[in-house]
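User: Can you fold this complex?
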Amino acid sequence: MGVWLKRHSWIVPYALLAPGMIWLTVFYVYPGIQMFIASFWSGTLETGFTFSLDNYTNYTAALEQFAPYYGRSIVYAAAATLLTFLIAYPLAYTIATKGGAQKNLLLFLVVAPFFTSFLLRTIAWKIILSEHGPVLGPLIALGLVPPDFRLLATPIAVISGITYNFLPFMTLPIYVAIEKVDGRLVEAAKDLYAGPWRPGGGIVGGIVGGILGGVLGVIFGWSWPVLALASAAAGAIVGWFLVSESFVRITFPLSLPGVLAGSLLTFIPAIGDYVNAEYLGNPDARMIGNVIQNKFLTQNDYPTAAALSFMLMAGVLVVVAVYARVLGTEDVTTGRL
Amino acid sequence: MDRDFLTTAPISRRRLLAGGALTGVAVFLAACGTKGTAATPVPSAPVAATGAPGTATGAPATAGATSAPSAVAVSPSAELNWANWTYYMDVDPNDQTKHPSLDGFTAKYGTKVHYQEVIDGNDEFVAKISDALKAGKDSGWDLITLTDWMAAKLIRRGWIETLDTANVPNLVANLKDVYRNLSWDPDNSHHAPWRSGTTGIGFNVDVTGDVSSLGVLFAVDPKTKGKVEYLTEMRDAIGLSMLYLGLDPAKPTRADCDAAVALMQKAKADGVIRDVKGQSYTTDLTSGDAVVAMAWSGDMPSAKVDNPSLRYNLATEGGMLWTDNLMIPKGAAHKGTAELLINYYYDPVVNAQLTLGVDYISPVKGTDELVIKANPDDATNPMLIPPPDWIARLHIFGELSEADEIYFNAQFAKVIGVG
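Assistant: Here's the predicted assembly.
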């Protein structure tokens, strides 16, 4: 066997690739082709469907009607990706650099929610965000929040739900990237006067915080100047006290591959998600995934549903391709920048 | 309860069945269901070979079992999988997880019933099992409980098993007359009505006061703004909207649909609506997040346990009447036992036990009398026995052609927020 293998060593990579290739062929390529064919059907479930290339109009008609849903999905997924980044980065940084003996426990806690089903976790958020739940209930009772204010059945709830559900996908790659940063580089930088970054950190933090807060405010439909000012102040404080030049010049650039990998792992599934919008949203906050689900399951309009899915997939592929082109997938796979 | 149909009545019928095998079981069954006397009994053992498909694995084939002269019609399987809606089964007041009437079935036949309240909407549920049914495979369910229009559609598609009338003598004898001779299953050979109910207004009386008009679902009112919920069941939502507009849901046209959708869209744009939901609207009403909703009649008495302020009313403009039906999907693993269960629930004594705990209209003759005897107040409970003035205001949504149904669903998708 060993000799045979040595003589036919070309076979090894193929043998190692085979399980993955077969798996993807059966469960991804084949259904993908089926879906592509279905997107050129016309007809109904009861009369039967017929294939014709003339039915490319399925695509144009679907795009015309549902373009706003693609737009909304992109905005929600991007907002959720941004929020997961803002939450995950300090978390991952702290675990990687200050975790000490508790590192494994902390990492376990990050993934612990995955021991509960995705659906249950989302439904739990319904209870948390309810006007009569533990968060809003007391606030409304105390009169701190107007009685007709609600979080559930709004875009905020949908984006919050996505953020929560995908947080570990952002945290873990960033953690790995920061963990890999050579501590000696940071020490060397500090020796070379890359200490606390004032006032630069405060100014940059304020500007970045202000922009992020403003953008999120616009997306959520809140008064964005207030949010921008508040987050500018927060950003300035964080930048002033917590950001050192060694972080800006060494740790952050070296952790970027983790950030980029985490962004992809969050954005791609988030854009097609429909569970959060179904349970936490309302008719004004549904995403393209809900449209596809309704087309498939309620209206039995398989051709339109297939065309919508295919366009979503193609759109995501384009995004990933552009990303790979501009930033290079090398960084994600090797951890080098 | 002491009547044991297995050992008494159906012997002659079993013989009839055996004779039927010579001419074709299906044809004979159909004849048997309506007349059941003409054929000559011919003893014939090898009928078992023609056993109904799908029963081979779990219970012995029904046709085979009936050919044995003294054996019971069906030997119950160890388990049975039943999909139903919530609030559709009596519960033990001391233990919410126990269903006395269902436990009675288990005690009698030894079958463990996996009773699951998994149906949130007709379309959603059927979509999950339609691939299996299309392929003629076991969907995993032995009994499904779906609304008339969906039942009609599934039967038309040939996805539903034919009931073996020999196994459901109670259904044959005790089904209320109003449920017979329906256009989509005239001899009741494919479906057994489970419960009927009405669609009207569910409301929190502390917030809204007494409600009698559908206007509360559409009009801007600071008390209810953003706390109104609609049903995702297209026929219920469009039906109530049509009634508010003075249109007749028994004869729905595309123009009616457009008008109803426009009405709901306007309410949505005005910020009246919180969400459009399936069965889960009840959780929002009980929590208080919603205060008015399109509601299914029997849900409100059950939800009242969690929130005593909830009420149900059939609006002055009218309400919708519907029936959910038990059916055995094609390829079900335990068809015979499923028939036993249907038959069990068509015993008025059992059905009275169920009805006392459920607050929906029973389709079984003799049940109402037993219920009133046990609980005289129920004589005036409109959820169970709709009074004449309710009946006058109730409408059944008219049949839609497939093309119209597609049109209605596509328009209604706008209201759900996906169109």
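Chain A has one domain: 22-195+244-334. Residues 22-195+244-334 of chain A form a domain with the MetI-like fold fold (CATH 1.10.3720.10).
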